[in-house]
Amino acid sequence: MRNTTAEKKCAYIMVQGTMSNAGKSLIAAGLCRVFMQDGFKVCPFKSQNMALNSYVTEDNLEMGRAQVMQAEAAGIRPSAYMNPILLKPTGDMKSQVIVNGEVYGDMSAKEYYAVKTRFIPDIEAALHKLSREYEIIVIEGAGSPAEINLKDNDIVNMGIAKLTDSPVILAADIDRGGVFAQIFGTVMLLEPDEKERVKGIVINKFRGDRSILDPGIEKTEEMLDIPVCGVLPYMDISLDDEDSLAERLENTNCKDIDIAVIRLPHISNFTDFNVFDKFEGVSVRYVKRASGLKDPDLLIIPGSKNTMDDMRYLWTGGLAEAVLSYAGKGKPVMGICGGYQMLGKRIRDPEGAEGGGNIEGLGLLPVETKICGDKKRELCRGRFRQINGIFKDLSGLEYSGYEIHMGVSDLSGENASGFTEGESGCSLGNVYGTYVHGIFDADRVADEVVGSLCRAKGISYEGGKINRKSFKEKEYDRLADMIRSHMDMDYIYGIMGLEG
Prior knowledge:
The chain is an alpha/beta fold. Helix content is 29%, strand content 26%. β6 (85-91) and β7 (94-99) form a beta hairpin.
């Protein structure tokens, strides 16, 4: 039974990692779900996130996708307060810095690290706001707390643990090997007061017999005097990924229905395509080279954080010619956001927002795009226009999603028709473009896309089996069950000063 003491202050727990992709995001999400199931009002928090997967909140602010996923696990609406600083790499060693959901400016790593402490009041204000609304805050760190070259004025790992007086759980990835060296090396590089904050160790992504680990666990606990409070199994779970380290980007398998996504150097919001993983017999491959394109049933050009650079990448690497050859056969091509801009005739950047200049697009849609400094951030909802081609049965279906882009696209041809509402997209034959991210998440939309591809190949298809929201809820519950089964939750509640 949960502690219901009215005067109890907000409790914190922080998940740090021995490296990037150690599993911090999913462990934090799992803890959010457990606490929610146990009756607590809980929310996630990450002071600084570097990722190209982002989301637009109900008040049209931008935040990292990982904290959106964690908020869903907690059963609450996402808020930019949960991720006050978002860094979106743009190329040339620069990132777009987003503070409190709005663009602050572009900075090099050196420039950002010189001024990052000025954002501490924004972090403190966000934590103060959340601590008044929630009983537990699950904080996620970034990378490793033992990056000794980055420790000065830290605002994302031990700096936040100190600010919140939070106990820290250190997650290590055994799947990459050297797990005990990861743990020991990380802890020994911490300052004495930082070591004191590490209250538990979690070994993540374990496959096999737990007893084989026991001698190493005992020796680690003896050397560090920190308990190993969990050994989490490798788990195939389908939830939105934080960044391009996601394993799904390495998939090369083809199934009955093969969807190929161009893996742009600045690919963003590839979570747009996660829904297709739920369909039996459908594969989503990420293609870097023309030779890897093969002959998919659908080719998608995804979002990009630097459309100009990624368009050059398509032209110089041979992928542009491969896309044009594929489209010339009448096969379906779809562009999302930056991919929509690339499908057009020309992209201009007169203000130098992405390096400046002009570049020729693929010319598959009669669209010209002007990149500008103002970013559009907006949730959207609408119906597909009356469209032609393989996806004609999408016509009239409802969709929802969000726009998040720097650029305005003008339709200049008479033959094209609308695709999504307003000026957010157009189509011509089997070529479709839209600015709307998340457009496939509505169950009927993804279902109709897969059904259309099946019918084109003469494959029988029984639709209506995927309910995106229900599926995700079950995945969050599975994640919570795993946390409960393989992590000492009584110990976790204890170091937080709570009763489970």
